[in-house]
Design brief:
Layout: E1 6-9, H1 20-23, H2 29-40, E2 48-52, H3 58-65, E3 69-74, H4 77-89, E4 95-98, E5 110-115, H5 126-139, E6 140-151, H6 153-160, E7 163-167, E8 174-181, E9 186-194, E10 200-209, H7 213-221, E11 227-232, E12 245-251
Parallel strand pairs: 1-10, 2-3, 2-5, 3-4, 5-6
Antiparallel strand pairs: 6-12, 7-8, 8-9, 9-10, 11-12
């Protein structure tokens, strides 16, 4: 895609939403859900769950299909629109809401809150992670459970530093370049997309921050949650310096 073209910066997932499921097609959602249900089972959670930062709803739809009463929230209206269409096609009832993971509020309280697909990595400041933890705590019932995952610097260094991808289809496709700065622990994925005007391209920039074990421990220690575990996402054993992704489970006091 020629650099001489007019460049228009657009909001994240304004165009990329239609490609999101393709970007995530390496994930076995059913195995992921089995793991989640195994982790929360000891707490005997009720059926009211919140998926915050739900993307196109792939996780929420599968959970709803298993009999869970789902509410699903995402900041991107484009992602929520696709999620609603998918849920309607699969005939599952889910309350979809456009909202911010930090500020979302509800009259309802939830038995389980999940924030997966690297959602928390989009929070770049400690103050925002603290707000997310506080907000989640307030949305949970006593004894409720919060589950979130976090990408580590090791994953970014191993898989995303200097990553390039080109994909084409009838919609024009995209060109992706991902950089990673180990000092700031910031990863930026730039998606360049063609438009109907051959002289113009649109660019989406997605910035995430990777977090070390010590960072995640601080999130938990500084929160109101009275119990937590930080696990390796692959083994579901205690997370360590070799983990590429942490899966964090916290319980609100009874």
């Amino acid at each position: 895609m020629a650099s001489s073209k007019n460049i228009q910066k657009i909001e994240p997932y304004q165009r990329l939403a239609v490609y999101y499921d393709r970007l995530m097609d390496y994930i076995d959602y059913d195995v992921w859900i089995d793991d989640i249900e195994q982790l929360v089972k000891p707490f005997k959670p009720g059926p009211n769950w919140l998926d915050i930062s739900c993307g196109t709803g792939s996780m929420a739809i599968r959970l709803a299909d298993r009999g869970i009463d789902m509410t699903a929230v995402d900041l991107s209206s484009h992602m929520i629109e696709i999620a609603r269409e998918k849920a309607a096609q699969q005939k599952v009832a889910i309350e979809f809401v456009v909202g911010d993971m930090i500020r979302f509020n509800s009259n309802a309280q939830y038995d389980v809150i999940i924030n997966l697909h690297d959602g928390l990595n989009y929070l770049l400041d400690v103050a925002d992670t603290q707000s997310f933890m506080e907000n989640s705590y307030g949305l949970l019932k006593p004894g409720g459970v919060l589950l979130f995952d976090v990408v580590t610097p090791l994953l970014c260094q191993t898989h995303f530093r200097g990553y390039r991808e080109i994909y084409t289809d009838e919609l024009g496709g995209y060109e992706r370049y991902t950089s990673y700065d180990p000092e700031s622990q910031l990863s930026e994925s730039t998606f360049t997309l063609n438009t109907s005007d051959e002289d113009t391209i649109e660019v989406e920039s997605h910035i995430q921050r990777a977090y070390e074990m010590g960072d995640v421990e601080s999130f938990c220690q500084d929160s109101k949650f009275d119990w937590w575990k930080i696990l390796d996402d692959e083994t579901l054993e205690q997370g360590n310096s070799d983990s590429e992704r942490y899966l964090v489970i916290l319980r609100k006091q009874l």
